Amino acid sequence: MIMRKTLAGALFGWLLTLPAAHAADPVVLTLYNGQHKEVGEAIAAGFEAKTGIHVDIRKGSSNQLASQIVEEGPRSPADVIYTEGSPPLNALGEQGFLAQVGAPILNSLPKEYVAKDGTWMGVTARVRVAAYNPKLIDEKDLPKSVLGFAGPEWQGKIGFVPNSGEFQEQAVAVIRLNGRDAAEEWLTGLRAFGKTYSNNIVALKAVENGEIPVALINTYYWHALKREKGQLDSRLYYFKGGDAGGLISISAAGAVKASKNPAEAQQLLAYMASEEGQRVITRATAEYPLFKGMVSDQGLKPFDELDAPKITPADIGNAEEALEMEQDVGLN
């Protein structure tokens, strides 16, 4: 607790030393939000209440917004970009479109969840799981590895979302842990025997409604549906032993180098990384806070109990390998 208060105090102390917006010419920040709408809105409202700085939000998919920043170049109106996964920001950082995140901000977060070159930071984390319907399948009959879903015995029984960024990150994790041949065999098997869905919530509802027994999703979709409905028939299956099925992925944010308000952009990042900002975010979505020493209050499985693979966002990179492999096996 003492360490957490020290980190929070240091981060906000640094934030307050940054130049404030001039009262006669108020700054308005533009946030390119690739995360869920309600999360971006919660951040904007909390930040304005804290600093008096208004945030305009432009919503889109993470990849779409990243591509837009590249196309806009130095004319981009974006000050901060917030994405569902790290690959789009990793690509922007490599191409020189992101500014350095302030060292005090980076130091308040686990080093494995920030860019090695300091151009972006993790905001919150989630874990890949299998959602299953116990009316259709017993937990003991689920494979211990996510690779086990690629066989003919899963014909029409396993759902997945090939265009999901987190699924593509998971495919990269399979490449890193099991090799390219195993990853290609896995994707080929899923294509042959699985059912594809347009997004994670649709796949989860297919499990919930008894359309399929199992789907590969992220935890926060299940918790969001549970919050909406109160009680669910489906359950979550956590992979163990460092299997790629239990990959931890992150949402991420960075300051756009073209920003006309660089100091205020850093203030917004500092707020998102702070204990207060992380609490605002994790009340809007069932994700794990990355602020050191902080835990979610949404009933998530404790972060330190996740037996996840030792694969970091830096290991995932731009996830281009997964996209290419999906195209090779006919998934895209």
Itemize the secondary structure elements and their pairings.
Blueprint: H1 2-17, E1 28-33, H2 37-51, E2 54-59, H3 62-72, E3 80-83, H4 87-94, H5 103-107, E4 121-132, E5 158-160, H6 165-178, H7 180-193, E6 195-196, H8 200-208, E7 214-218, H9 219-229, E8 235-237, E9 248-255, H10 262-273, H11 275-284, E10 288-289, H12 313-316, H13 320-329
Parallel strand pairs: 1-2, 1-3, 5-6, 5-7
Antiparallel strand pairs: 3-9, 4-7, 4-8, 4-9, 4-10
Helix pairs in contact: 1-10, 2-11, 3-4, 6-7, 10-11
Low-confidence runs: none
Overall structural class, as computed from helix and strand content, comes to alpha/beta
Number of domains: 2
- CA distance, first residue to last residue: 47 Å
Mean pLDDT: 92
Rg for CA atoms: 20 Å
Separate helix tally = 13
How would you describe the overall organization of this protein?
The protein is α/β, with parallel strands linked by helices and 332 residues long. The protein has 13 helices and 10 strands. The protein has 2 domains: 2-125 and 249-302, Periplasmic binding protein-like II (D-Maltodextrin-Binding Protein, domain 2), CATH 3.40.190; 127-247 and 315-329, D-Maltodextrin-Binding Protein, domain 2 (3-Layer(aba) Sandwich), CATH 3.40.190. Strand 1, helix 2 and strand 2 (54-59) form a beta-alpha-beta unit.
Q: What is this structure, in a nutshell?
A:
The protein has 332 residues and is α/β, with parallel strands linked by helices. It is 42% helix and 15% strand. It folds into two domains: 2-125 and 249-302, 3-Layer(aba) Sandwich (D-Maltodextrin-Binding Protein, domain 2); 127-247 and 315-329, D-Maltodextrin-Binding Protein, domain 2, CATH 3.40.190.10.
